[in-house]
Serpentine Receptor, class T (Caenorhabditis elegans), 332 residues
Amino acid sequence: MGSFYLRETGEIRDVYKIFLLVECPFHIVNIFLLLICPNFIFSSKTLVNLNLKMTIASYFLAGVLMSMSRLAWLICDLFWVPINTMEILMYSRFVFQTSIAAHLFVFSIERAIATCLSKRYEQNSSYPVIILSCILTYPYSLIQLYSKYNFEKGREINVVMYGGAGIVSLIILLVVYRVNKKKVKERRFKGPISEAYQVRENIRTSRLLIQIFFIFAFFVGTSTFFLLKFSASLTDPSQKWTTIKNGFMYDILICIGTTCTTTVFLQFLIPDDTLKKWRLKFHLSCQQRSVTPEGKRLRFRSIHGIDVEVGNGTAEEEARVYFTQLSQAWKL
């Protein structure tokens, strides 16, 4: 986080340049990961509801724009571009960063809708609600931006807003997870197989989002601690070293946290067969084995307590065939 006195030549500037150079690779890696994500999000092999794909794509878009804004700032700061010229990059980075946090609330709303409309969610896909929710993350970000620079306790107000939205999101996700687990346990849905799949997808994705929430909460919480210390020392020239260290810790934690959540999403989106190929390519231990040995059939008990026998393909292959046929039937 730049400041005018960090442009003064001397020891502080030299250390500050090292901090800038250390942070750059993290954003480059993050941009690379986010740019390859669309190939998996919209792949026909990715067995994820289309509305959830749209929300994830919007989340990744905000992540790419945040990292690009911050990387551009770092490069400009290294080459002594006037700070007044760089302000737009600082503002845009903050807006996209806040939008990323707001998307966690959008995820929880999307999963709540999917739970309430599990019988017909794929057919009545609620596009307007999902798209509008993703768009509204940006006005929310602008409100936080205004609060940060126009109120005396703007940063503190934003922290409270972050915390409130985060707690509501976590409560919604926990309720979604519990309700859908209860449905599976009690076998309370007697509708088509698409409803059974939707319920299980709700469980799988809510579990994923809860994990992402705690990862995000850890990095945002620790970075907020350094941000508040940074703000307290920013106007005191005698605490230059405190300011530069706290600013660096805040920025590095934010970009590492974004990279971690992106990696978790990628692991969720990449099909099992692709992950297996990558593990073999990089000589990693393959933890996921084939569901069925060669020449044997897959047997399992359905949600209605009926023994089901499937062909020689893996469970993922069987599911892909079914949902391809189901999607075609809905288009008729």
Q: What stands out?
A: The longest strand covers residues 298-301.
